[in-house]
């Protein structure tokens, strides 16, 4: 019998797949690899929709992966490959914190550039503390650029209800540096009370220290409630190897500036209106240099598949 399901967890190439009727299967890839997925670092990720053959009441063999309607992917600096972290979410919640670690807006810009086919909500946690004036301005800029923003405190519970409201009826990937309070927020919105650094959901009662992505559900999903994909904390993040114009599109202020050169990267080109706007202070210069550093990152890479003789 073949069944459809969603990947809830992936450990050592064994996937926990939940069927649309709510049954859990442990699914493996048949043979060594799926032919169509050759060349990907990790062909199946949390959130993927898969077709599998049930071989017992709890085990299956993977047959196919559906194409993804959205994903979060980054450049894996150790393996010289693009790495998808999770797929098919309705939105990304990029969590930052006011302190420990301090707000790193360029990290947020990078998360936006790694998001494919999905909007990013910028969430400032630990709002029981204070941002500096410069940080405050930089955070507010996201709102003016059209991003949804929310300030919360997992510690005091401030705006946790608002955050829960943003999650209703959706599947949200929670992304951020480690220490910003992702697990604390996940606990707060789900109403679970595990120690920080551990998350337990309906299907994952054991300890979870977030070293891989995992799908969690609120009570009574799917009739109501929401799902969250908790992800490991990233220290550094770089956009996947791709067309640089895609990274450019992560900066809506460049579009509204109407640089006349359609393929302009707004870096070395003469008479570029974006560069002019930066000089005039109309475009935030830290945002601009955040973009430039991503482009430089991408241009300095040599992907494994372009290196002769290094890897198959
Ligand atoms: N002051 C303050 N500390 C928080 C808040 N949320 C989390 N923390 C603390 O930040 C640390 C990291 O939290 P954790 O949820 O493990 O972060 P994660 O690595 O992103 O999952 C813990 O010591 C939490 O107690 C908050 O809203 N305010
Ligand atoms: Mg965590
Ligand atoms: Zn330009």
Name the CATH superfamily classification of the largest domain: P-loop containing nucleotide triphosphate hydrolases
Strand order of the largest sheet: 11-10-8-12-14-13
What is the N-to-C succession of helices and strands?
A: EEEEEEEEHEEHEHEHEEHHHH
The count of helical stretches stands at 8
Largest sheet: 6 strands, mixed
Q: How many strand segments?
A: 14
CATH architecture of the largest domain: 3-Layer(aba) Sandwich
Question: Which secondary structure elements does this structure contain, and how are they paired or packed?
Answer:
Elements: E1 2-11, E2 14-19, E3 24-29, E4 49-54, E5 59-65, E6 71-76, E7 81-87, E8 91-97, H1 105-114, E9 115-116, E10 119-125, H2 133-144, E11 148-151, H3 160-167, E12 171-176, H4 182-190, E13 214-217, E14 227-230, H5 244-248, H6 252-256, H7 273-279, H8 285-299
Parallel strand pairs: 3-5, 8-10, 8-12, 10-11, 12-14
Antiparallel strand pairs: 1-2, 1-4, 2-3, 4-5, 6-7, 6-9, 13-14
Detailed description of the structure:
This protein has a six-stranded mixed beta sheet, sandwiched between helices. Residues 194-209 have low confidence and may be disordered. The protein has eight helices and 14 strands. The two termini are 35 Å apart. With 312 residues, the chain is α/β, with parallel strands linked by helices. The protein is globular, with a radius of gyration of 21 Å. Helix content is 23%, strand content 26%. The chain has helices spanning 105-114, 133-144, 160-167, 182-190, 244-248, 252-256, 273-279, 285-299; strands spanning 2-11, 14-19, 24-29, 49-54, 59-65, 71-76, 81-87, 91-97, 115-116, 119-125, 148-151, 171-176, 214-217, 227-230. The structure holds guanosine-5'-diphosphate, magnesium ion and zinc ion (ZN). Zinc ion binds next to helix 7.
């Amino acid at each position: 019998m073949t069944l459809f399901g969603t990947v809830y967890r992936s450990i050592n190439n064994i996937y926990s797949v939940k069927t649309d009727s709510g049954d859990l299967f442990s699914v493996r890839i048949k043979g060594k690899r799926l032919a169509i997925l050759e060349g990907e670092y990790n062909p199946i990720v949390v959130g993927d929709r898969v077709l599998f053959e049930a071989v017992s009441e709890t085990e299956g063999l993977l047959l196919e992966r559906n194409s993804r309607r959205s994903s979060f992917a980054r450049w894996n600096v150790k393996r010289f490959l693009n790495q998808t972290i999770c797929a098919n979410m309705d939105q990304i919640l990029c969590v930052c914190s006011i302190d420990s670690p301090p707000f790193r807006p360029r990290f947020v810009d990078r998360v936006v550039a790694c998001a494919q086919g999905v909007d990013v909500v910028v969430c400032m946690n630990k709002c029981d503390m204070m941002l500096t004036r410069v940080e405050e301005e930089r955070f507010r800029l996201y709102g003016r650029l059209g991003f949804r923003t929310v300030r919360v405190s997992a510690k005091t519970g401030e705006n946790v209800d608002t955050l829960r409201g943003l999650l209703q009826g959706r599947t949200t990937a929670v992304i951020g540096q480690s220490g910003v309070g992702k697990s604390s927020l996940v606990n707060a919105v789900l109403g679970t009370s595990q120690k920080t650094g551990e998350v337990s959901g309906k299907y994952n009662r054991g300890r979870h220290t977030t070293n891989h992505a995992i799908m969690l559900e609120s009570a009574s999903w799917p009739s109501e409630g929401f799902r969250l994909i908790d992800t490991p904390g990233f220290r550094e993040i770089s956009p996947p190897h791709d067309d640089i114009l895609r990274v450019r599109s992560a900066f809506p202020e460049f579009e509204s500036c109407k640089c006349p050169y359609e393929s302009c990267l707004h870096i070395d080109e003469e008479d570029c209106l974006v560069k002019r706007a930066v000089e005039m202070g109309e475009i935030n210069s830290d945002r601009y240099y955040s973009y430039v550093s991503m482009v430089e990152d991408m241009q300095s890479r040599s992907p494994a598949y372009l290196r002769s003789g290094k890897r198959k």
